[in-house]
């Protein structure tokens, strides 16, 4: 009699598991559960060997403000932010690398003049190791109209953004590489286009 009751109980458990899996539910041990807004989600996925795909809808993005640089931007968990020796700001995660540089903009200079001079300088310096992939074009960033272009330099694809401020300009360099299965380019674009300019 006890064996029959045990057998019936096991059968009920098996049917419950089958029914749950048919309904699209998955049974995950408590130690493996990750809440959608957990700051540990990115590192947990990496440890499990998952791809680096990040959707901005899955995280609560923080705001980084650079008072001296006169700008702010939003970033998700798992992103590292550090000041480099030349006072530029580096934002990185896996193979996503974005740097923010602030340079003086002289009264006689226009932002397009600065960008064109940079392109010409790269052509002279790199020769056939520099290739313009997307020509210089206007873009709206941080309530200002800036300029952008993309190039291939020494085998790396790089996108540049020039954003004018009052007496300075912000040069944003996106050197992100996007391995197959990752969505780091999308992440870097979200971060760059969240740019807000402060009064300078």
What does the model show?
It is built from 4 helices and 10 strands; from the N terminus they run H-H-E-E-E-E-E-H-E-E-E-E-H-E. It has helices spanning 2-22, 41-47, 111-126, 184-193; strands at residues 62-66, 71-75, 80-83, 89-93, 96-104, 130-141, 144-153, 156-164, 168-174, 196-197. It has a 7-stranded antiparallel β-sheet. The protein has a 3-stranded antiparallel β-sheet with strand order 1-2-10. The protein is of the alpha+beta class and 200 residues long. The chain has one domain (58-197): Protein Transport Mog1p, Chain A, CATH 3.40.1000. The N and C termini lie far apart (84 Å).
Question: How would the blueprint of this fold be written?
Answer:
Elements: H1 2-22, H2 41-47, E1 62-66, E2 71-75, E3 80-83, E4 89-93, E5 96-104, H3 111-126, E6 130-141, E7 144-153, E8 156-164, E9 168-174, H4 184-193, E10 196-197
Antiparallel strand pairs: 1-2, 2-10, 3-4, 4-5, 5-9, 6-7, 7-8, 8-9
């Amino acid at each position: 009699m006890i064996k029959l009751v045990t057998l019936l109980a096991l059968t009920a458990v098996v049917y419950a598991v089958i029914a749950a899996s048919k309904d699209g539910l998955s049974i995950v041990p408590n130690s493996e559960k990750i809440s959608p807004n957990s700051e540990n989600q990115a590192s947990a996925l990496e440890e499990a060997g998952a791809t680096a795909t990040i959707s901005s809808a899955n995280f609560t993005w923080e705001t980084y403000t650079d008072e001296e640089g006169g700008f702010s931007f939003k970033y998700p968990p798992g992103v590292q932010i550090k000041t480099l020796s030349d006072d530029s700001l580096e934002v990185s995660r896996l193979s996503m690398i974005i740097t923010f540089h602030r340079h003086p903009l002289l009264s006689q200079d226009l932002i397009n003049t600065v960008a064109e001079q940079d392109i010409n300088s790269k052509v002279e310096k790199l020769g056939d190791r520099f290739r313009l992939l997307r020509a210089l074009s206007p873009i709206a960033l941080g309530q200002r109209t800036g300029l952008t272009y993309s190039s291939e330099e020494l085998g790396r694809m790089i996108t540049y953004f020039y954003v004018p401020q009052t007496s300075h300009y912000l040069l944003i360099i996106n050197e992100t590489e996007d391995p197959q299965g990752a969505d780091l380019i999308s992440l870097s674009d979200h971060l760059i286009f969240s740019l807000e300019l402060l009064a300078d």
